[in-house]
Each structure stands twice: as C-alpha cells, then as structure tokens.
Write a structure and sequence with these properties.
215 residues, mainly alpha
Amino acid sequence: MSEAVGPVIALWALVGVGAYLIGSISSGYLVGKVYRNVDLRRVGSGSTGATNTFRTLGPGAGLLVALLDIAKGAVAVVLARAVMVPADRDVVATAEAVAAVAVVTGHCWPALLERRGGRGVATGFGALLFVATPAWATAVLAFVIALAVTRIVSVSSLASVAGAVGGYVAFTASGITRFEWETLAFFVVGGAIIVWRHRPNIERLTRGTEPRILS
C-alpha cells in the first residue's frame, strides 16, 4: 500500500459510516407505510425485509423491497470504489469490504427504527455483486435451488451464504478470480451477521415450525 496510512484509514472510516447510513434506509418500512400505512416491525416476523413484506403486503411489495435492498448493497460498494480510486487494489478492496459489511449492518440494525431491520440477505446480495461477482452467481444459484427444494426462505438464505463462500473458494482456487483477504473477511463477517440474524428462524427450523413461503 503506497498511500499515506492516515488519510487512507480516514477514508475507510468515511466509507464505513456512509455505507452504514445507506443500509439504514429501510426499504421495507418505507414501502409498508406507503402501501398500507403498516409498520412491518409490528406485524409478522417483525422484520423489515422482503420476506415479511411479501407475507404482509403481497408479492409486488415484497419484490420491490427485495430490489431496493439489493440496490442498497450495490450502491454502497460502488460508491466506496469511487471514493478510493485511484488507489492500490488492496486499498480499494478493503474499502469495498468495509462498505459491504457496513451496509449489511445498517440494514440489520438501522440507525433509526429502534435498530430493528431485516436479515441482510438481499443487501448482502447487492454488495456481493460488486465485491466478488462470480461468487454472487453461486450464492443466487444456491438460494434458488434451496427454495425450490424446501420452499423455506430462511433455508434458502442460509444456503446462499454457503453458496457464496463455496463459490469464492472454488473460483479463487481455480484461478478464475483473484484471492483477496479483504473479500474473504467480508464473507466471514457478513455471513456471520446473516446467520446471527436468522437465529429465530433456525430455532423454528429445529422445531419444525418454520413457515413455507409456498404451500
């Protein structure tokens, strides 16, 4: 890293704060209020994510929230990349990873709304699209396959985390994409956040009471 350390760290911190604030913009809360004046934190699972929106407000609202949440993750990483250019790739990769983790954190624990947000999957997808594009494809594939087999969104979400990590390991091992410790850190931290946010779902899965999205 050839850049002066102080200014670079300050920019990383700025990227992290900005990404967290972007993640804190709750698509589910806003859509719920506009659609039917519903606070998604008070109904269903209490999540402001796309799945609870789907169950509470219908597929159109659920799809809109999913797309907006994906966009949040993508925008945070793209802006982080823009802020750091021109810089060494390691510096940019760190900024991307910081932004990706921060935007997922903001989505899960927003600055407002009593820190009650979503599960982080859609926002993580958006960030992953620009942090490690090939692994994004394996994450989506794992999600789709798991949803088709189980019809349970939480299982699909957890499968997507495994698909992302497995895809990244496979693609870097085969030389298709460059291995970066910063990207791996995003997988570990971001994946841990998503799994942690799914604790209630995991408990229901162990009891056999987790609802299916399609019957």
